[in-house]
Amino acid sequence: MLFPISFAEPLWLLLLAMLPPLAYVYMRMERRRHVALRVSRQEAMKGVKTWVVYARGSIQYVRWAVLALLVLAMARPQWLDDEERRRVRARDVFVVLDVSHSMLSRDLLPSRLEAAKALAARWISGRSGDRIGLVLFAGGAFTHCPLTLDHRLLRAFLANAQVGRLPEGTAVGMGLATALHHLGQSASAAGKAVVLLTDAENNSGVIGPLQAAEMARALGVRVYAVGLGRDGMVESPTRRRFEGGYDFGRRTMVLDTALLERMALTTGGRFFRADDATALNAIQSELDALEQVEVEQAVVVHRTELYFWILTVAFCLMVFELLLRWGPLRVITV
């Protein structure tokens, strides 16, 4: 790096411009004081110019140097130990997760929702260069976590995803449209995609799934749809109890694979079927291989704060100035 120093609070450096005028005014005021004699040793009275005479005229500059160092410390200079430019494979991706009541079905253990969360968490862990966000949907949809590079925070939001926070229903189109709202405003991404995790029991929402897929195609966003669960008799929630728990019973469920396949085909993405643990593991490897785009990023490896050392030098200079001023350079005013 050409200049390995940066400042975290550079506006404080503007105060340095005020020091020369203040020093000039101070020296003018010093000259106007009525002082008959300024000596600290008898030799100076005999016309002998000792080091004290020269030091006396220069000691004030130490004080101004201390002030300059204090201003410099407030600007928080930092030493950039290393900076490198490297090519990484990155995208802007939203995970759109179904949190409707049917996702509590137990054909995938411990439930469809927990299986989907585990799949998403493992996938996020392998996408260090991507900005990833999280949208939850049921009868409505909301952004649970915006696009971020802090994947630890994202996984915490993912683990917190629960059923029951949204109106009943499954609005697949609303979930996808919410993610598209954010991806459409992202101008810096090298590529954009949505990973949709749902059991596809679409039954609500003002925006339909296919309408949302057309919106995704117009924005250049690929949709990778993962259908969770198997067809047939499944242990699924039948009633929500007063305290918030659920009663379970067996009922017939059918995954609308045609809908998810058409959504993926419309956007140029892919459809995956996850009906057991083996299929989930296979999907994990296929999701890891989703297309990526190489982009160049500047990465600062480490920054070292320097203000402590500047304050140490300023303190030492201040002590030195006080020792001289009240010692060998002490002024006798007559």
Quick take:
The chain has 334 residues and is α/β, with parallel strands linked by helices. It contains ten helices and eleven strands.
Q: What do these coordinates show?
A:
The chain is 39% helix and 26% strand. The chain has two domains: 5-81 and 302-325, no CATH class; 92-291, von Willebrand factor, type A domain (Rossmann fold, 3-Layer(aba) Sandwich), CATH 3.40.50.410. The chain has helices at 19-32, 42-45, 51-74, 112-125, 151-159, 172-184, 209-219, 257-267, 277-288, 307-325, and strands spanning 5-7, 77-90, 92-98, 131-137, 141-148, 192-198, 222-228, 232-240, 246-253, 271-274, 293-305. It has ten helices and eleven strands. The strands form three sheets. It has a six-stranded mixed beta sheet with strand order 5-4-3-6-7-10, with helices on both faces. The protein has 334 residues and is of the alpha/beta class.
SSE order: EHHHEEHEEHHEHEEEHEHEH
Gyration radius over CA: 34 Å
Q: Return the CATH architecture of the largest domain.
A: 3-Layer(aba) Sandwich
CATH superfamily of the largest domain: von Willebrand factor, type A domain
Low-confidence stretches: none
Neighbour order of strands in the largest sheet = 5-4-3-6-7-10
In the CATH hierarchy, the third-tier topology of the largest domain is known as: Rossmann fold
Provide a count of the helices: 10
SSE class: alpha/beta
- How would you characterize the largest beta sheet? 6 strands, mixed
Helical coverage, percent range: 25-40%
Strand content: 25-35%
CATH class of the largest domain: Alpha Beta
Q: What sort of overall outline do the alpha carbons produce when their principal axes are compared?
A: elongated
